[in-house]
Amino acid sequence: HLLFPMMEWPIIYDVRTRPTELSSFSGTRDLQYVNMSLRVLYRPNVSHLPVILRKYGTDYDRRILPSIINETLKSVVAMYNAEQLTTQREEVSLRIKRDLMERAEEFHIGIQDVAITHLEFSKEFSKAVEDKQIAQQDSEQAKFLVHLAMQEKQSKIIAAEGEAKAAQLIGDAMRHNPVFAELRRIEAARHVAETLSNSHNRIFLDSNSLLMNMLTDFVSDESVTRINK
Q1: Do 178 and 218 touch, CB atoms closer than 8 A?
Q2: How much helix, strand and coil, in percent to the nearest 5, is found in the chain?
Q3: Are 105 and 53 in contact (CB under 8 A)?
Q4: How confident is the model at residue 218 (pLDDT cuts 50, 70, 90)?
Q5: Whole-model pTM?
Q6: Range list of β-strands (E), the chain
Q7: Do residues 111 and 104 touch, judged by C-beta distance below 8 A?
């Protein structure tokens, strides 16, 4: 371009995408306070550079962006409660980007990207959240212990029922089948003999000590005589 010395001079604008970051202390819908930092990528609208220069000057970004970013942050944060800001962070970021793009377009500034870089609640709210999490963990642990106790109780009931049924079957077998009683007597005597054989002491036992008379409690003498034959 042809310039007239002393009357015209070039003004250099950086039209590349540049970042800026701003923090805002805002109130949520449930009256909690949050300190949020926002990182914004922006660039000027090249076709409107003369308008930007005439209205806002070369430092347009420092004049415009802090105010509209702070305004947008406060308006969007006020739509959500504190829990939603944490659980719906991506949705909040997209909402801020959309509103900020619409607001910056009025000043011929293009918003390329928006990201929440920091989110901090008040100490009182953070303490309340921590206490709530601890209470939930204690509640889950208590539920687990109750469930474990119920399972253990059920296992004991099943084991007791099984032992009772086994004892009933053994009693019925010993009353109706003398051979089964004789086998049980022999097994008991063998167990006693094996236990005593491992001892270093010399012991003399009769048939009563070896449980050899066990059969008479369940069968008659006639049955024993028939088995011995």
Answers
A1: yes
A2: 60, 15, 25
A3: no
A4: very low
A5: 0.54
A6: 18-27, 33-44, 109-121
A7: yes
